[in-house]
Amino acid sequence: MSENKRTVASPSSASVSSTASRYRRSSLQKTPVPRGGIAMARNTKDAAASPKPVKESGNVQDDKLVEMINTTIVDRSPSVQWDDVAGLDGAKQALLEMVILPAKRRDLFTGLRRPARGLLLFGPPGNGKTMLAKAVASESQATFFNVSASSLTSKWVGEAEKLVKTLFQVAISRQPSVIFMDEIDSIMSTRSISENEASRRLKSEFLIQFDGVTSNPDDLVIVIGATNKPQELDDAVLRRLVKRIYVPLPDSKVRTLLFKTKLKSQPHSLSSSDIGKIVRETEGYSGSDLQALCEEAAMMPIRELGADILTIQANKVRPLRYDDFRKSMAVIRPSLSKSKWEELERWNSEFGSN
């Protein structure tokens, strides 16, 4: 009996063994191992299980960069007109010749009359440099790019240079264009050996795209930079910013115009002699300082109301007086020291266009 069992068991195991071997052969034929052996197959399997992010390349990457640049275009008008900018006649004339007139009459501004491609607005902070750029965006028919350091920098190595290149390509495709770089010294400061390599490459790409061998002089793309530290700009950047307009502290005429403009919408009892006194006493104030002074003076009648502020009618509040401005001058002081003012004056006499 035991022998019969052994006899029956033996052919059964052989049959199973042969069936298994045939199955293994057929499975190997259907799923061949890729070149590189089992190690590559394991790597492929691991990659499928836990995929790593792959950096975009080609057209997809280009579209992404173009979209990033398109976000810097000021599509909506900032609603700042020329008349809103008091004084600064030299800067207005330069912008008129460089941006507004060539955009409207391109046929006249050719050859030697071709407008300069670079303009630098420099001077103490708070005197209307950025407001001039807003007025250009409103008055001109050009595409206006508002570029800052954050829009040209990237965590990816090499992407900052591509962004600069894409910026100029988009500006050329949408010309006439204006590229405005506020606080340009934060991006285009003097190159040094110790600075970051990515920063050096960004500056080099900007210089190449602005006025390199690939640039076309017939393209109407204007670069406007604004800074209160022109002495920190790279020499190559200064060479490309041909016109350098000094935006100084407001003189007595401009201060008078500013005060009259601010007081138009505010009830006051100031005479012409009172305004003249305020103008003389605010020597050294910037435009933003004068704005803050007017706002502080306007609060003086409100502070006198005390508990009545909740019940009094708006037309019952007393008008502004000269004393309100006198008290406000003790709170709002000039923001620019005389040494910095003199330094900018010296730089203007050496490098400025006016």
TrEMBL record:
Q: Name one Pfam family in it.
A: Vps4_C
EC number(s) stated in the UniProt entry for this protein = 5.6.1.1
- For whether the record's keyword set contains Nuclease, the answer is no
Q: Where is this region: Disordered?
A: 1-62
Ranges of biased composition (kind: Low complexity)? 7-21
What does the record give as the reaction this protein catalyses? Answer: n ATP + n H2O + a microtubule = n ADP + n phosphate + (n+1) alpha/beta tubulin heterodimers
Recorded hits in InterPro entries, A to Z, give: AAA+_ATPase (IPR003593), AAA_lid_3 (IPR041569), ATPase_AAA_core (IPR003959), ATPase_AAA_CS (IPR003960), MT-severing_AAA_ATPase (IPR050304), P-loop_NTPase (IPR027417), Spast_Vps4_C (IPR015415)
Q: Which residues form the AAA+ ATPase domain?
A: 115-251
Q: Which UniProt keywords apply?
A: ATP-binding, Isomerase, Membrane, Microtubule, Nucleotide-binding
Annotated protein name in UniProt: microtubule-severing ATPase
What are the top taxonomic ranks of the organism? Eukaryota, Viridiplantae, Streptophyta, Embryophyta, Tracheophyta
Q: Which gene encodes it?
A: LOC104699460
